[in-house]
Design goal:
Radius of gyration: 12 Å
Shape: globular
Number of helices: 4
Largest sheet: none
Number of strands: 0
Number of domains: 1
Helix content: 55-70%
Protein name: TIGR03643 family protein
Order of helices and strands: HHHH
Oligomer: single chain
Strand content: under 5%
Pfam families: DUF2805
C-alpha cells in the first residue's frame, strides 16, 4: 500500500459511518487485518482509544445496523 492509501485507511477506520465491509471492498482487508494495520500505523494510545470507540459503534459493523446502507460513501 502506498502512503496515501494508508492515510485513507486510517481515515476510514476512524470514521463512525464507514463499515469494515466498505474498507474490505476498497482495500481487501478484513476487520482483523484493519486492526493489525491500525496497531502498526498509529500510536499505542491512539490505537487503544480507537478500539474502545469501535467496539461501542454499531455503525462499524454492518450486521449490527438496524438499517442497511445502500451507498458506499456518505452524503458529503
Amino acid at each position: 500500500m502506498q502512503e496515501h492509501d494508508l492515510n485513507r485507511l486510517i481515515e476510514m477506520a476512524w470514521q463512525d459511518r464507514t463499515t469494515f465491509d466498505a474498507i474490505y471492498l476498497q482495500y481487501g482487508l478484513t476487520e482483523n487485518q484493519v486492526k493489525n494495520r491500525m496497531r502498526k500505523l498509529i500510536s499505542k494510545k491512539a490505537y487503544n482509544r480507537w478500539r474502545k470507540r469501535v467496539q461501542k459503534r454499531a455503525t462499524k459493523h454492518k450486521k449490527k445496523l438496524y438499517h442497511k446502507p445502500n451507498r458506499f460513501q456518505g452524503p458529503w
